[in-house]
């Protein structure tokens, strides 16, 4: 009797890096739950993945910026009787107005989507991974988390939270067979800039600064499987990260682990 396939949950899976994660994990034999707002896009992708890879692929149309989003996702998993082995927290957005000019609803939506829902999903799912002794979690941060602070950039502050949280949880979970990786891509070809209204600015950047989403997702999967807590994909991004951070990430991680107050 064949062992059941492992299950993966991917948020923000309707396009870009999230959809690419779906293709790569499906090709590796994972059954998938794809969660995002655009249910029609998710269903089209799911149908394609089922046809190409013979996996089971479920979709859930949900606003991940809603306060009850994580609960809705977990309740859907319970209905499917699924236990998640691989979690990809990919859903994200960035505001395009100054902090003081944005409404609280806009700012709170960013915080809810990329901090609260992300953290709650990990909290609800990681315990089962640890009980089973195996799990993989990728949290999509950004090269912005390694950059100097910029005016009005709530996005950078949020992605810094994701970076630090991922490293902290990797320290806690790894002895139980669960790896956590913060994936920190730079400029990546996707719909992100169209949705955020920054396409013209992005198009002015030189080609060597850009990566394909397939390369970003592949690097993230390889990093989490290898147990690396931080992944900066691409040679250009690695150089930029090294120039912007006074302490190398690996040394910062080791120092933080050594100073753990819960030992």
TrEMBL record:
One term of GO molecular function: oxidoreductase activity
**Lipoprotein found in the keyword field:** no
One short Pfam name that applies is adh_short
SUPFAM superfamilies reported in the protein's UniProt record: NAD(P)-binding Rossmann-fold domains (SSF51735)
Under Gene3D superfamilies, the record lists: NAD(P)-binding Rossmann-like Domain
**Keyword list, A-Z:** Oxidoreductase
Q: What is this protein called?
A: SDR family NAD(P)-dependent oxidoreductase
Q: Reply yes or no: does the keyword Phosphoprotein apply.
A: no
Task: Return the InterPro entries for the record.
Answer: NAD(P)-bd_dom_sf (IPR036291), SDR_fam (IPR002347)
Taxonomic source organism: Hydrocarboniclastica marina
For this chain, the family text in UniProt reads: Belongs to the short-chain dehydrogenases/reductases (SDR) family.
Concerning PANTHER family, the annotation shows: NADP-DEPENDENT 3-HYDROXY ACID DEHYDROGENASE YDFG, VERY-LONG-CHAIN 3-OXOOACYL-COA REDUCTASE
């Amino acid at each position: 009797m064949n062992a059941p396939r492992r299950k993966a949950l991917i948020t923000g899976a309707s396009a870009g890096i999230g959809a690419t994660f779906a293709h790569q994990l499906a090709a590796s034999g994972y059954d998938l739950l794809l969660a995002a707002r655009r249910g029609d896009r998710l269903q089209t992708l799911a149908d394609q993945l089922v046809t190409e890879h013979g996996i089971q692929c479920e979709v859930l149309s949900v606003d991940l910026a809603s306060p009850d989003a994580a609960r809705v996702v977990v309740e859907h998993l319970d209905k499917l009787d699924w236990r998640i082995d691989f979690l990809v927290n990919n859903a994200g957005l960035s505001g395009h107005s100054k902090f003081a000019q944005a409404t609280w609803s806009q700012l709170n939506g960013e915080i809810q989507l990329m901090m609260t829902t992300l953290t709650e999903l990990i909290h609800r799912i990681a315990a089962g991974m640890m009980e089973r002794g195996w799990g993989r979690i990728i949290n999509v941060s950004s090269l912005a988390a390694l950059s100097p602070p910029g005016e009005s950039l709530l996005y950078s502050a949020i992605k810094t939270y994701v970076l630090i949280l991922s490293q902290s949880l990797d320290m806690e979970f790894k002895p139980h067979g669960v790896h956590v990786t913060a994936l920190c891509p730079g400029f990546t070809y996707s719909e992100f800039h169209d949705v955020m209204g920054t396409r013209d600015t992005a198009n002015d950047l030189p080609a060597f600064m850009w990566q394909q989403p397939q390369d970003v997702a592949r690097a993230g999967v390889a990093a989490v499987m290898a147990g690396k807590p931080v992944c900066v994909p691409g040679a250009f991004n690695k150089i930029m990260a090294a120039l912007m951070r006074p302490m190398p990430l690996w040394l910062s991680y080791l120092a933080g682990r050594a100073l753990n107050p819960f030992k």
